[in-house]
Amino acid sequence: MTSLQTPAIPEHSLDRDCTTLSRHVLQQLQSFSPEAQDLSAIMNRIALAGKLVARRLSRAGLMADVLGFTGETNIQGESVKKMDVYANDVFISVFKQSGLVCRLASEEMDKPYYIPENCPIGRYTLLYDPIDGSSNVDINLNVGSIFAIRQQKEDDLDGEGNDLLKDGQEQIAAGYIVYGPSTMLVYSIGHGVHSFLLDPSLGEFILAQENIKIPDHGPVYSTNEGNFWQWDDAIRDYTRYVHRHEGYTARYSGALVGDIHRILMQGGVFLYPGTVKKPEGKLRLLYESAPLAFLVEQAGGKASNGMKRILDIVPDKLHARSPLVIGSKEDVSLVESFIQDHQRRANGN
Ligand code: AHM
Ligand code: MG
User: Fold this and answer.
1) Which of 85, 119, 204, 238 has a 20 to 30 Å separation from 53 between CA atoms?
2) Which ligand has the nearest atom to the CA of 81?
């Protein structure tokens, strides 16, 4: 090669390496409007939070005070892990003095957290689960973070976040970060679903896949079958159905984000139905089920509580829970048909 020849770097790989998350958001919106700039900057801060959490997780067993419980119990009555607290604080810190997000609401906080210096201009709320599947942290398995962005339209007069009690269609962006063998961020701003891989050598999330489509059907069913005794007959019948038919395989990691990520890529269904102990199930609507429903619908899938679309459910409180059936269209519809048949029979129709 003479010095005048173009270096042999394939053009597309350079383009891909330069497609960072913030640039991708602007490309998606095809605009440099103030709203587009805001969304791009918010995604950039979420990415920073993901990098900080990933860095700490990667050293978890090597550093003091990362693994184990704090001894506290959160608003959900669950024991709080040190990593839950760290990750919760990381999301708050990255938005301080950003002028972007005025308020954050998470699984770990009773009430929304205000960043007053951002509030005059930052009319956005971030809803998030800082570490989803935190029981996996201490055994060095995958966990995730889930997030959604909503625009603040009304005033939150008593600081309880009652103005957030709206359906999931109010979300303007949603996604998750999965901390697995590599760290991956998957997001949607209502223009399809796209994934980004953290390149540790660059410290950047780089475009991995655009316009991800979930298969209409897949082999995986993902649920905690240890709850069989606590399920109602519809879910038991569905489970018996998959046990008795060829072509199904069970996968359940105890961490929602990883289980949903598998289903997004390969198809299938994830279920967390109501149980005797928790009739509304375990998963929280505003910062777990609704963001994932937004994402999965954007990928061509479905998310339901068995009777109703998740994105149409209006929560009655900040930490409201809902049964969740989510994944490939046909597989979610099959679970719904069991639930709705039982409902019809119970109503005498
Ligand atoms: P967490 O956010 O407190 O970790 O709880 C949510 C997790 C999900 O990731 C997972 O699907 C579910 O809880 C597992 O619950 P169970 O152990 O009851 O099957
Ligand atoms: Mg969670």
Assistant:
1) 119
2) 1
